Amino acid sequence: MSVSAHEPAARHAVPGAPCWVSLMARDLAAAQDFYSAVLGWTFQPGMLGGEFSVALFDGRPVAGLGALAHTLHVPVSWTPYFAVASADDVTARVRERGATVAVGPLRFAHGRAALAADLDGAVFGVWEGTVLDWSVGRGSAPAWLELRTRDAFAAAIFYGEVLRWAVPGEAGCEVDYAQGQVLVSDGTHAVAGLRGGAIEEAPDPSIRPRWHVYFPCSDVDTSMKAAIAAGGSVVQPPRAGAHGYEATLRDPDGGLFTVTTVRGRPMESTSVAPDARPA
Question: Which of 117, 130, 172, 197 is 20 to 30 A from 11 via CA?
């Protein structure tokens, strides 16, 4: 995470809830130009130095962008961070379950962070410390976070144990199954979904597990055209989906994301007819 002194006051997040998303780009300036063109973001320096910036929409923080070291040959992808009371305890639980801790925990300006991968290889981060007034599906934050995995229920057990979801007697996230996926709630609204094989169905071996982010936009077609003009590509053309009118795009570095007209969680969104699109 990278934050700036000019951002809104920090707060304590619900334990286990998503508290930030970030992207490590191969060319930070080019990534800023791309997301500015596609989503209308502006940028300001973060507190981690010139290689990090904070994306803003209407002056409020959306996400973090950083420059990926040229010596690291890893895929570029959006990564969610989850709020935790102790990064040490969480990374220990990750290792105990046979998953991978890739980086940290490391100390930063306002807390400590670590990067890990779950048992199927989906990358996620954890953050110990205060966070911005930022919540998925609210304000300037992403509209939705979704784990696309082979077995949503096995993943829910892993994340539940690691992030202490749905633990009786503890303040934290709640978990339910609805709309064909495992839904994670911070107690006020759903903040993430885990999607994979349905109940009593075999896991889907064709899925490459990853966390996927949905960003709200005012017009999907305009964002899609801007992405193409800025060197990106269209992975899934605009369509009516569970999250409203949406399209999945790839930035010039290969980072996948979806743009959507729905700013809230799927359960709060109005149903969309198959041929519907915004006026």
Answer: 117
Lowest mean pLDDT among 80-89, 120-129, 236-245: 236-245
Q: Which is higher by pLDDT, 232 or 196?
A: 232
Quickly list H helices, 70-151: 87-96
Amino acid in position 47: M
Calculate the average pLDDT of the chain: 85
152 contacts: CB under 8 Å, gap ≥ 6: 181, 182, 194, 195, 196, 197
b (16+ CB within 10 A) / e for 220-245 = beebbebbeebebeeeeebebbbbbb
Q: What is the DSSP letter of 275?
A: T
Euclidean distance between CA atoms 20 and 192, whole angstroms: 12
What is the pLDDT, as a whole number, of residue 46?
Answer: 72
197 burial type by CB count under 10 A (0-12 exposed, 13-18 middle, 19+ buried): middle
Evaluate whether 72 touches 266 at the Cβ level (below 8 Å). no
Report the predicted TM-score, pTM, of the whole model to 2 decimal places: 0.87
DSSP string for 146-169: EEE-S-HHHHHHHHHHHHTTT-TT
Beta strands in the chain (DSSP E): 10-11, 18-25, 42-46, 49-57, 60-67, 78-84, 100-108, 111-117, 123-129, 131-132, 144-148, 174-178, 181-185, 190-195, 210-216, 233-241, 244-250, 256-260
244 vs 190: CA distance, rounded Å: 16
Residue 136: is its pLDDT beyond 80? yes
Sort strands 144-148 and 210-216 into parallel, antiparallel or unpaired.
antiparallel
The one-character DSSP state at 86 is: -
- The SS3 assignment for 226 reads helix
